[in-house]
Specification:
With about 240 residues, this protein is of the alpha/beta class. The chain is about 40% helix and about 20% strand. The protein has one domain: 3-Layer(aba) Sandwich (Carbamate kinase). It contains 9 helices and 9 strands. A 9-stranded mixed beta sheet has the order 4-3-5-2-1-6-8-9-7, with helices on both faces. It is globular and about 50 Å long.
């Protein structure tokens, strides 16, 4: 038995860069694909949104002189590149994956709609939803919140390089302590950054819980699905 029937898995583009710090680390990519296959073999319906920060981040590009809208569009394209890479890695190990894009770019990917995504999920395909929301000024965190709500996921599993939500940044403050679970209201009150404010508010208002865990440790996705408490649950 798994804890969730349908999940939205949010993956970090930066994490996909692995040890090399940029681009796509093939070992990390294959690790992610094998973990997703484990979840798929458990019968879980899997929607995925992956960031593009390993290739290009629109907001940082704007700080270097890029037009913000064009920078965000470049970031959307970066998420498509990552999505294609993950789709390829999944296909290589026998998992059927479908790339849907929020901006039209057939034949690279099919144009996203909720109904297309649900149809694919119900057929047992892994659905990778790329290009964010298709609009500038929205992050892939917001894109993952939107897609998670649209596909009626039981939970958003946010795979990061940290193992949950802490009172402070554990990489900077050794006294930081980890929350087992925390409410959205407490996140606002404490000023904690789980996702950007737009994404967090969308999840709160639509009652989509978020589970933050370290995806970079092999086997952790399966542990989360089996109910092992290795991260932090954010809920109403």
């Amino acid at each position: 038995m798994t804890k969730f029937k349908r999940i939205l898995l949010k993956l970090s583009g930066e994490s996909l860069a692995g040890q090399q710090g940029h681009g796509i680390d093939v070992d990390r990519l294959n690790d992610y694909a094998r973990q997703i296959k484990e979840a798929h073999d458990m019968g879980v319906e899997i929607g995925i949104v992956i960031g593009g920060g390993n290739i290009f981040r629109g907001l940082s590009g704007a700080g270097k002189g890029f037009d913000r809208v064009k920078g965000d569009q470049m970031g959307m394209c970066a998420t498509v590149i990552n999505s294609l890479a993950l789709s390829s890695a999944l296909g290589a190990i026998g998992v059927t994956a479908r790339v849907l894009t929020a901006i039209r770019m057939e034949p690279i990917g099919e144009f996203y709609s909720k109904w297309k995504a649900l149809e694919c999920l119900q057929r047992g395909e892994v659905v990778i939803m790329s290009a964010g929301t298709g609009n500038p000024y929205f992050t892939t965190d917001t894109g993952s919140s939107l897609r998670g709500i649209e596909i009626e996921a039981d939970v958003m599993l946010k795979g990061t390089r940290v193992d949950g939500v802490y009172t402070a940044d554990p990489e900077k403050d050794p006294t930081a302590t980890k929350f087992h679970d925390i409410t959205y209201d407490e996140i606002y009150h404490r000023g904690l950054k789980v996702m950007d404010l737009t994404a967090t508010t969308m999840c709160k208002e639509n009652n989509l819980p978020i589970y933050i865990f370290n995806m970079d440790v092999y086997g952790n996705l399966k542990k989360v699905l089996e109910g092992e408490e290795i991260g932090t649950l954010v809920h109403n």
